[in-house]
Amino acid sequence: MNDSINNLSEEQALTVVPPQLSKGSHPVLKGQYLIDTLEINRVKDKILDWAAQRLPGAIIYGDTRLGKTRSIEYLEKLFEHEHQGQFQVFRYNCQMFNNKPNEDSFFKFFLKDVGHKLYDEGKPSVKRDRLFKYLITKGKTSEEHHILLFFDDAHRLNEIEYNWLMDIFNELDRYGITLTTILVGQLELHYKRNSFIESDMRQIVGRFMAQKHIFEGINDISDLEYLLAGFDYSTEYPQNSNWSYTRYFFPKGYSYGNRLEDFTEPLWELFTKSHEGFSKKKSLNIPMHHVIAMINMLFRKYGYHGEGLEWPNMIHWKESLQNTGYLDFQGIDYGEPQKNIYKK
């Protein structure tokens, strides 16, 4: 990123104005953006390793609100961009059926999620054959005849749905196409894996749960620093504008050289203190949901489209975090906030 703006005088910095955008169009204001994290990078490396081994399937599981769904969305776009042609990437959002799984609905939603236009036409057997043919065609267009298929909320899947998936796996295998399934879900997914092993349903485990990875939130100060720095440098809107999200919402403070990553230590202390007051038994694992919600609130309320502050301080960070419901859940009184971190 071009940081020449940091060399402006105070008088010049006062004239710094972000790009003029239509009302509410910034990704932060719309709540529609994806951002890289260290955990996403760890998951990415795992998946690429599994894909290189042509592993049939693996599970990624963790507590709620850690950012698993957003990570899938990020990786789906990343793989489509960086590994275009190497393998086909799809994502299926597992449904919660009221009674028992319905074959017609299963293949209907499957076809819809992989992008087939005729997802709602025909009997269940017709939908199933249509899905087989579609995946075979897509798989053959990839360089390695390989399909990478994400299942979000995979803890919702049950035995009969795994049998339907096994039919898909076998059909693709007949045509020389490798299917690697990545099941992503809550802790229940891990318990189901153990249950399948105990029930001697090893064909399901071997096909779809051969390896596992525990998805983590932010549990190390380096995780937090990497995320904050992403807002300072890696994000950008409009495209090719050199206006990171931090620079856009706090243009003057940014021009003085201030960055969100400067708050890493006091924010880490805030989260650590909260955790110690709530639980000394569990290890610290901050939900990504709350951290992103906190940053969004800071930008919206105190930034360019809100109060228009030059730069936030820890009072503003604490208030933003409280608005996410995180501190109320922990039940901690923090007393006086730390002083502002502000460069001029």
Give a structural overview:
The protein starts with 9 loop residues before the first helix and ends in a 14-residue tail after the last helix. With 344 residues, the chain is α/β, with parallel strands linked by helices. Mean pLDDT is 88; it is low at 1-5 and 331-339. A 5-stranded parallel β-sheet has the order 2-3-4-1-5, with helices on both faces. The protein has helices at residues 10-13, 27-30, 38-52, 68-82, 103-113, 124-141, 159-174, 187-198, 202-208, 221-234, 245-249, 251-255, 264-278, 288-302, 314-322, 326-330, and strands at 57-61, 88-93, 146-152, 178-185, 211-214. α5 runs parallel beside α6 (124-141) and α14 (288-302) crosses α15 (314-322). It contains 16 helices and 5 strands. It is 49% helix and 9% strand. It has 2 domains: 21-28 and 219-330, no CATH class; 38-214, Rossmann fold, CATH 3.40.50.300.
Labels describing this entry:
344 residues; alpha/beta; Rossmann fold; disordered N terminus
Short précis:
Helices cover 49% and strands 9% of the residues.
User: How large is the radius of gyration?
Assistant: 23 Å
Please, what is the oligomeric state?
Answer: single chain
Helix share bin:
40-55%
CATH architecture of the largest domain: 3-Layer(aba) Sandwich
Q: How is the main sheet built? A: 5 strands, parallel
Major beta sheet, strand line-up: 2-3-4-1-5
Beta-strand residue percentage: 5-15%
The helix/strand order is HHHEHEHHEHEHHEHHHHHHH
Per DSSP, the total helix count is 16
Per the CATH scheme, the topology name of the largest domain is Rossmann fold
Tell me, rounded to a whole number, the average pLDDT.
Answer: 88
Give the termini distance in whole angstroms: 21 Å
State the shape. elongated
CATH class of the largest domain: Alpha Beta
Question: Count of DSSP E strands?
Answer: 5
**Weakly predicted, low-confidence segments:** 1-5, 331-339
CATH superfamily of the largest domain: P-loop containing nucleotide triphosphate hydrolases
How many domains would you count in the coordinates?
A: 2
